[in-house]
Amino acid sequence: MSNNNNNSTPLATTAPALVEAPQSAVTVVGGTAPATTTAAQATKIDLPTRLVLAALSGMGAATVCHPLDVVRVQMQTSSSFRNSYHAATSIYAQSGLVNGLYAGISAAYLRQWLYGSCRIGIYSYLLEGAQQQNLAAGRKKNDISFATKLGMGCTSGSIGSLVGTPSEVALVRMGADSKLPVAERRNYTSVVNCLTRIAKEEGVINLWRGAAPTVARATVLSACQLGVTSEAKEYLSDSGYFGVNGQWLGGYPMMFCATTLSSFCANLAANPFDVIKSRMQQMKTTPGVTPPYTSMMDCFIKSIKAEGPMVLYAGFTPAFLKLAPYTILSLTLADKLTKAWTGKEAL
Length: 347
Prior knowledge:
Elements: H1 2-29, H2 35-42, H3 47-77, H4 84-95, H5 97-101, H6 105-136, H7 146-176, H8 191-202, H9 211-239, H10 252-282, H11 296-307, H12 316-342
């Protein structure tokens, strides 16, 4: 009897444990993770932090890529250069490194704090929000359609470009000033000088000159650049060619391939808008005199009539050569800085 009683006691105490174990398992499967995981998932990176990280990433990329942007702008606003190399050497021979190839670098930095920060920061903020919604609903974190990612890129790009158009105008003006005849140069001394003079001499509204093609270009470019990068990054991570979760060699080869592909797609879609934008922002205006272009469509029609349809892809090579390293650097920096600072990815 005593042996039977002793045997029944462990059964009685063990039974609840056997019942409780499945309950905890069901809890995890049902979507409620352990306390530490729940806390990590519930902590969303605030938008200001993402904006600052995006701006710093953009500044790093702009420092390396700015000369290519100067070459692009001058090729798009003038037909006097034979190719990208001829443009770069001519600009350097005429104006040097600081006043030539790095003309307007202060405007480029301002552009990153206005446009770049919003474009990458808002996109990553929206992407994380969608990922958290998926986790809360018991779906895979990255169960987000490509169309949704493109929409996020459109949203962040359009907002960023509208905020950053004044810096874009200053960047184009300062970058193209050295190619003008000496008597016609504006000789801006800094981005602040450029912006204040435009406001005083031409009116505040001209700080947003070319806003329509600028927003159109940024919307298309950001959709392709960010959406394609996220989609390609997910595909390449799952392919196994770049190690577990794409983290072979720290994930840099995978990011290089994803951002290079997105750069080509973005440049192909955005270059026509870029040409129109550059021409409208660079044109000189005189009070009481009709400007060379009265609208985005007017510039589009006149440019094609004067130089043929391929004018819309003028500067494609320097634009891609600038966009590819800029995209690779800025998005990789954004992803790695965000990972180092917050433990999460940006894209």
